[in-house]
Amino acid sequence: MITEDFPKFKVAAIQASPVYLDREGTVDKVRSYVEEAKRKGANVVVFGESYIPGFPIWNLIYPPIDQHGMRKKLYENAVEVPGPTFDQIANIANENDVILSVGITEKDRKSPGTMWNTNLLIDEHGRLILKHRKIVPTWAEMLTWARGDGSTLKVVETKFGALGSLICGENTNPLARYSLLAQGEQLHIATYPPAWPFRRHSQQQYDLTEAVRIRTAAHSFEGKVFTVAASVGLDEVTIETLEEGYRGSREVLQEAPKPVSLITDPSGRVIGGPLVGSEGIVIAEVDLERIIEEKEIHDILGYYNRFDIFKFQLNDVPQRPLWRKGEKEAERRRA
Predict the structure, then answer these.
(1) Confidence band for 324, pLDDT divided at 50, 70 and 90
(2) Which SS3 state, helix, strand or coil, does residue 188 take?
(3) Of the candidates 223, 320, 212, 307, the residue with the CA atom closest to the CA atom of residue 265
(4) Which of 220, 226, 251, 272 could form a disulfide with 282 if both were Cys (CB 3.0 to 4.6 A apart)?
(5) 26: closest CA among 81, 99, 79?
(6) Cβ atoms of 12 and 41 closer than 8 Å
(7) Are 134 and 78 in contact (CB under 8 A)?
(8) Residue 107 DSSP SS3
(9) Is 261 helix (H, G, I), strand (E, B) or coil?
(10) What average pLDDT does this structure show over 136-141?
(11) How far apart are CA 322 and CA 136, in angstroms?
(12) Which domains does the chain have, with CATH numbers?
Protein backbone atom coordinates (compact mmCIF):
# COMPACT_ATOMS: atom_id res chain seq x y z
CA MET A 1 0.00 0.00 0.00
CA ILE A 2 3.01 2.31 0.02
CA THR A 3 2.36 5.25 -2.28
CA GLU A 4 4.77 6.05 -5.11
CA ASP A 5 5.28 9.61 -3.98
CA PHE A 6 6.09 10.75 -0.46
CA PRO A 7 4.29 14.03 0.31
CA LYS A 8 5.13 16.57 2.95
CA PHE A 9 2.18 17.83 4.97
CA LYS A 10 1.18 19.03 8.43
CA VAL A 11 -0.67 17.08 11.09
CA ALA A 12 -2.41 18.52 14.14
CA ALA A 13 -3.28 16.83 17.43
CA ILE A 14 -6.10 18.64 19.25
CA GLN A 15 -5.99 18.33 23.03
CA ALA A 16 -9.31 19.82 24.07
CA SER A 17 -12.15 19.13 26.47
CA PRO A 18 -15.55 18.35 24.95
CA VAL A 19 -18.71 20.12 26.02
CA TYR A 20 -19.23 17.17 28.31
CA LEU A 21 -22.10 14.87 27.33
CA ASP A 22 -23.43 17.54 24.96
CA ARG A 23 -23.20 16.19 21.41
CA GLU A 24 -24.18 19.36 19.58
CA GLY A 25 -22.00 21.60 21.71
CA THR A 26 -19.00 19.32 21.20
CA VAL A 27 -19.49 19.25 17.41
CA ASP A 28 -19.38 23.06 17.47
CA LYS A 29 -16.09 22.82 19.36
CA VAL A 30 -14.74 20.40 16.76
CA ARG A 31 -15.60 22.93 14.07
CA SER A 32 -13.83 25.75 15.91
CA TYR A 33 -10.64 23.76 16.49
CA VAL A 34 -10.52 22.41 12.94
CA GLU A 35 -10.82 25.93 11.56
CA GLU A 36 -7.97 27.07 13.82
CA ALA A 37 -5.79 24.09 12.87
CA LYS A 38 -6.46 24.76 9.20
CA ARG A 39 -5.38 28.38 9.58
CA LYS A 40 -2.13 27.05 11.00
CA GLY A 41 -1.59 24.91 7.93
CA ALA A 42 -2.82 21.50 9.12
CA ASN A 43 -3.84 18.93 6.50
CA VAL A 44 -4.72 16.13 8.94
CA VAL A 45 -6.51 16.97 12.21
CA VAL A 46 -6.88 14.47 15.07
CA PHE A 47 -9.10 14.55 18.17
CA GLY A 48 -8.89 12.18 21.15
CA GLU A 49 -10.77 9.10 22.34
CA SER A 50 -14.58 9.35 22.49
CA TYR A 51 -14.31 13.11 22.09
CA ILE A 52 -17.96 13.27 21.07
CA PRO A 53 -19.77 13.46 23.47
CA GLY A 54 -17.05 12.79 26.07
CA PHE A 55 -15.10 9.91 27.57
CA PRO A 56 -17.06 7.95 30.26
CA ILE A 57 -14.61 8.62 33.11
CA TRP A 58 -17.28 7.59 35.61
CA ASN A 59 -16.60 3.97 34.61
CA LEU A 60 -13.31 4.29 36.51
CA ILE A 61 -14.64 6.12 39.57
CA TYR A 62 -18.28 5.33 40.32
CA PRO A 63 -19.53 2.00 41.74
CA PRO A 64 -21.37 0.17 38.91
CA ILE A 65 -24.78 0.52 40.59
CA ASP A 66 -24.39 4.32 40.52
CA GLN A 67 -23.61 4.56 36.79
CA HIS A 68 -27.02 4.09 35.18
CA GLY A 69 -27.91 7.77 34.82
CA MET A 70 -24.58 8.74 33.26
CA ARG A 71 -24.72 5.83 30.86
CA LYS A 72 -28.22 6.82 29.72
CA LYS A 73 -27.08 10.39 29.10
CA LEU A 74 -24.08 9.10 27.14
CA TYR A 75 -26.35 6.97 24.97
CA GLU A 76 -28.69 9.89 24.33
CA ASN A 77 -25.73 11.98 23.12
CA ALA A 78 -23.91 9.20 21.25
CA VAL A 79 -23.50 9.32 17.46
CA GLU A 80 -25.17 7.20 14.78
CA VAL A 81 -23.16 6.42 11.66
CA PRO A 82 -24.64 7.32 9.25
CA GLY A 83 -26.80 9.99 10.80
CA PRO A 84 -27.34 13.75 11.16
CA THR A 85 -24.46 14.33 13.58
CA PHE A 86 -22.10 12.36 11.39
CA ASP A 87 -23.14 14.55 8.45
CA GLN A 88 -22.19 17.65 10.44
CA ILE A 89 -18.77 16.20 11.25
CA ALA A 90 -18.23 15.22 7.62
CA ASN A 91 -19.13 18.72 6.49
CA ILE A 92 -16.48 20.17 8.83
CA ALA A 93 -13.82 18.07 7.08
CA ASN A 94 -15.12 19.01 3.65
CA GLU A 95 -15.46 22.73 4.36
CA ASN A 96 -11.92 22.95 5.73
CA ASP A 97 -10.33 20.61 3.17
CA VAL A 98 -8.73 18.41 5.84
CA ILE A 99 -8.63 14.75 6.74
CA LEU A 100 -10.40 14.59 10.08
CA SER A 101 -9.99 11.92 12.74
CA VAL A 102 -12.38 12.11 15.67
CA GLY A 103 -13.28 9.72 18.47
CA ILE A 104 -16.94 9.13 19.18
CA THR A 105 -19.20 6.93 21.22
CA GLU A 106 -21.23 5.22 18.51
CA LYS A 107 -24.74 3.83 18.92
CA ASP A 108 -26.99 1.65 16.78
CA ARG A 109 -30.80 1.84 16.90
CA LYS A 110 -31.08 -1.90 16.12
CA SER A 111 -29.97 -2.61 19.69
CA PRO A 112 -30.81 0.41 21.91
CA GLY A 113 -28.27 0.80 24.67
CA THR A 114 -25.41 -0.86 22.78
CA MET A 115 -22.45 1.44 22.18
CA TRP A 116 -18.95 1.21 20.76
CA ASN A 117 -15.76 3.17 21.28
CA THR A 118 -15.26 4.27 17.68
CA ASN A 119 -12.78 6.36 15.73
CA LEU A 120 -13.93 8.03 12.51
CA LEU A 121 -11.56 8.95 9.70
CA ILE A 122 -13.14 11.32 7.17
CA ASP A 123 -11.37 12.57 4.06
CA GLU A 124 -11.16 16.11 2.74
CA HIS A 125 -14.30 15.55 0.63
CA GLY A 126 -16.37 14.60 3.66
CA ARG A 127 -16.36 10.88 2.89
CA LEU A 128 -16.04 8.27 5.63
CA ILE A 129 -12.93 6.26 4.76
CA LEU A 130 -12.51 4.30 7.99
CA LYS A 131 -14.70 3.51 10.99
CA HIS A 132 -12.65 1.67 13.58
CA ARG A 133 -14.26 0.17 16.68
CA LYS A 134 -12.00 -0.59 19.64
CA ILE A 135 -11.58 -4.36 19.63
CA VAL A 136 -11.44 -4.75 23.43
CA PRO A 137 -12.75 -2.11 25.87
CA THR A 138 -10.16 -1.70 28.61
CA TRP A 139 -10.94 -2.70 32.20
CA ALA A 140 -13.92 -0.65 33.47
CA GLU A 141 -14.76 0.54 29.94
CA MET A 142 -16.55 -2.80 29.53
CA LEU A 143 -19.37 -1.26 31.59
CA THR A 144 -20.10 1.02 28.63
CA TRP A 145 -18.75 -0.26 25.32
CA ALA A 146 -19.17 -3.44 23.27
CA ARG A 147 -16.24 -5.11 21.48
CA GLY A 148 -15.30 -4.29 17.91
CA ASP A 149 -13.95 -6.83 15.42
CA GLY A 150 -11.13 -7.33 12.95
CA SER A 151 -13.04 -5.86 10.02
CA THR A 152 -12.03 -2.34 11.10
CA LEU A 153 -8.31 -3.05 11.56
CA LYS A 154 -7.54 -1.39 8.25
CA VAL A 155 -5.13 1.05 6.67
CA VAL A 156 -6.55 3.47 4.09
CA GLU A 157 -4.82 5.22 1.22
CA THR A 158 -5.12 9.01 1.15
CA LYS A 159 -3.40 11.90 -0.61
CA PHE A 160 -1.24 12.09 2.53
CA GLY A 161 -0.14 8.48 2.53
CA ALA A 162 -1.43 5.33 4.19
CA LEU A 163 -3.29 6.05 7.47
CA GLY A 164 -4.30 3.72 10.27
CA SER A 165 -5.70 4.25 13.75
CA LEU A 166 -5.88 2.52 17.11
CA ILE A 167 -7.65 3.60 20.27
CA CYS A 168 -5.85 3.95 23.61
CA GLY A 169 -4.92 0.51 25.02
CA GLU A 170 -4.96 -1.02 21.53
CA ASN A 171 -1.62 0.72 21.12
CA THR A 172 -0.20 -1.70 23.69
CA ASN A 173 -1.31 -4.71 21.63
CA PRO A 174 1.64 -5.79 19.45
CA LEU A 175 -0.56 -7.80 17.08
CA ALA A 176 -3.07 -4.98 16.56
CA ARG A 177 -0.23 -2.60 15.79
CA TYR A 178 1.50 -5.11 13.54
CA SER A 179 -1.72 -5.69 11.60
CA LEU A 180 -1.65 -2.03 10.54
CA LEU A 181 2.06 -1.93 9.84
CA ALA A 182 1.74 -5.05 7.68
CA GLN A 183 -0.85 -3.22 5.56
CA GLY A 184 1.65 -0.47 4.77
CA GLU A 185 0.79 2.13 7.42
CA GLN A 186 2.79 5.36 7.13
CA LEU A 187 0.95 7.69 9.52
CA HIS A 188 -0.45 6.17 12.69
CA ILE A 189 -3.23 7.84 14.66
CA ALA A 190 -3.41 7.02 18.38
CA THR A 191 -6.17 8.44 20.57
CA TYR A 192 -6.37 8.62 24.36
CA PRO A 193 -8.72 9.70 27.21
CA PRO A 194 -8.50 12.77 29.48
CA ALA A 195 -7.51 10.69 32.52
CA TRP A 196 -7.06 7.10 33.64
CA PRO A 197 -7.45 6.93 37.45
CA PHE A 198 -6.47 3.46 38.65
CA ARG A 199 -6.06 3.81 42.42
CA ARG A 200 -7.30 6.17 45.12
CA HIS A 201 -4.72 8.14 47.09
CA SER A 202 -1.72 6.15 45.92
CA GLN A 203 1.77 7.01 44.79
CA GLN A 204 1.56 4.09 42.37
CA GLN A 205 -0.94 5.63 39.98
CA TYR A 206 -1.15 4.44 36.39
CA ASP A 207 0.96 7.10 34.67
CA LEU A 208 -1.11 7.97 31.61
CA THR A 209 1.26 10.79 30.64
CA GLU A 210 4.30 8.54 30.46
CA ALA A 211 2.38 5.61 28.96
CA VAL A 212 1.28 7.71 25.99
CA ARG A 213 4.83 8.94 25.41
CA ILE A 214 6.20 5.39 25.51
CA ARG A 215 3.53 3.93 23.22
CA THR A 216 3.85 6.74 20.69
CA ALA A 217 7.62 6.56 20.39
CA ALA A 218 7.64 2.76 20.38
CA HIS A 219 5.20 2.41 17.48
CA SER A 220 7.07 4.98 15.40
CA PHE A 221 10.44 3.39 16.13
CA GLU A 222 9.35 -0.21 15.56
CA GLY A 223 7.31 0.43 12.43
CA LYS A 224 9.31 3.36 11.04
CA VAL A 225 6.19 5.48 10.75
CA PHE A 226 5.00 8.86 11.91
CA THR A 227 2.59 8.79 14.87
CA VAL A 228 0.19 11.47 16.05
CA ALA A 229 -1.15 10.91 19.56
CA ALA A 230 -4.14 13.01 20.62
CA SER A 231 -5.58 12.97 24.13
CA VAL A 232 -8.81 14.54 25.34
CA GLY A 233 -8.52 17.53 27.68
CA LEU A 234 -10.00 17.63 31.17
CA ASP A 235 -11.69 20.90 32.12
CA GLU A 236 -13.42 22.18 35.25
CA VAL A 237 -16.92 21.66 33.84
CA THR A 238 -16.23 17.96 33.28
CA ILE A 239 -14.88 17.59 36.81
CA GLU A 240 -17.92 19.38 38.26
CA THR A 241 -20.30 17.15 36.29
CA LEU A 242 -18.62 14.00 37.59
CA GLU A 243 -18.48 15.33 41.16
CA GLU A 244 -22.25 15.88 41.09
CA GLY A 245 -22.79 12.20 40.43
CA TYR A 246 -20.30 10.84 42.93
CA ARG A 247 -18.57 12.74 45.73
CA GLY A 248 -14.83 12.30 45.69
CA SER A 249 -14.52 12.35 41.90
CA ARG A 250 -12.75 15.72 41.94
CA GLU A 251 -9.94 14.52 44.19
CA VAL A 252 -9.42 11.37 42.16
CA LEU A 253 -9.23 13.29 38.88
CA GLN A 254 -6.96 15.99 40.25
CA GLU A 255 -4.52 13.34 41.49
CA ALA A 256 -4.49 11.43 38.19
CA PRO A 257 -1.58 11.99 35.76
CA LYS A 258 -2.36 14.52 33.02
CA PRO A 259 -3.33 13.87 29.39
CA VAL A 260 -0.61 14.45 26.79
CA SER A 261 -0.54 14.93 23.02
CA LEU A 262 2.53 14.64 20.80
CA ILE A 263 3.80 13.71 17.34
CA THR A 264 6.80 11.46 16.64
CA ASP A 265 8.87 10.70 13.54
CA PRO A 266 10.05 7.26 12.28
CA SER A 267 13.01 7.31 14.66
CA GLY A 268 10.69 7.80 17.64
CA ARG A 269 11.86 11.40 18.10
CA VAL A 270 9.27 13.94 19.27
CA ILE A 271 8.68 16.53 16.53
CA GLY A 272 5.51 18.09 17.95
CA GLY A 273 4.72 18.74 21.61
CA PRO A 274 4.44 17.23 24.07
CA LEU A 275 1.48 19.23 25.32
CA VAL A 276 0.74 18.09 28.87
CA GLY A 277 -2.47 18.90 30.73
CA SER A 278 -3.60 22.10 29.08
CA GLU A 279 -5.79 22.60 26.02
CA GLY A 280 -4.22 23.43 22.71
CA ILE A 281 -3.02 22.29 19.29
CA VAL A 282 0.18 20.38 18.55
CA ILE A 283 1.34 20.72 14.92
CA ALA A 284 4.27 19.15 13.09
CA GLU A 285 5.37 18.67 9.51
CA VAL A 286 5.46 15.11 8.22
CA ASP A 287 7.85 14.11 5.43
CA LEU A 288 7.01 10.53 4.44
CA GLU A 289 10.31 10.19 2.59
CA ARG A 290 11.96 9.88 6.03
CA ILE A 291 10.54 6.36 6.24
CA ILE A 292 12.85 5.09 3.50
CA GLU A 293 16.09 5.86 5.32
CA GLU A 294 14.85 4.66 8.71
CA LYS A 295 13.89 1.28 7.23
CA GLU A 296 17.54 0.69 6.39
CA ILE A 297 17.99 -0.01 10.11
CA HIS A 298 14.93 -2.19 10.84
CA ASP A 299 12.23 -3.21 8.39
CA ILE A 300 9.97 -5.63 10.24
CA LEU A 301 7.81 -5.96 7.12
CA GLY A 302 10.77 -6.92 4.98
CA TYR A 303 14.33 -8.08 5.47
CA TYR A 304 14.26 -7.68 9.28
CA ASN A 305 11.70 -10.40 9.81
CA ARG A 306 11.52 -14.18 9.41
CA PHE A 307 8.24 -15.09 7.81
CA ASP A 308 9.39 -18.70 7.60
CA ILE A 309 9.36 -18.69 11.43
CA PHE A 310 6.53 -16.28 12.27
CA LYS A 311 3.08 -16.18 10.72
CA PHE A 312 0.28 -13.73 11.46
CA GLN A 313 -3.39 -14.10 10.52
CA LEU A 314 -6.08 -11.41 10.69
CA ASN A 315 -9.78 -12.32 10.72
CA ASP A 316 -11.35 -9.33 8.98
CA VAL A 317 -14.87 -10.74 8.63
CA PRO A 318 -17.40 -8.47 10.40
CA GLN A 319 -19.17 -10.00 13.38
CA ARG A 320 -22.89 -9.33 13.53
CA PRO A 321 -25.95 -10.84 15.27
CA LEU A 322 -27.60 -12.24 12.12
CA TRP A 323 -26.29 -14.10 9.07
CA ARG A 324 -28.81 -15.16 6.43
CA LYS A 325 -28.73 -18.75 5.21
CA GLY A 326 -26.79 -19.12 1.98
CA GLU A 327 -24.99 -15.79 2.37
CA LYS A 328 -21.65 -16.01 0.62
CA GLU A 329 -18.30 -15.29 2.25
CA ALA A 330 -17.66 -12.35 -0.10
CA GLU A 331 -20.97 -10.81 0.98
CA ARG A 332 -20.06 -11.27 4.63
CA ARG A 333 -16.81 -9.40 4.15
CA ARG A 334 -18.71 -6.44 2.70
CA ALA A 335 -21.15 -6.36 5.64
Answers:
(1) confident
(2) strand
(3) 223
(4) 272
(5) 79
(6) no
(7) no
(8) strand
(9) strand
(10) 98
(11) 21
(12) 8-333 (3.60.110.10)
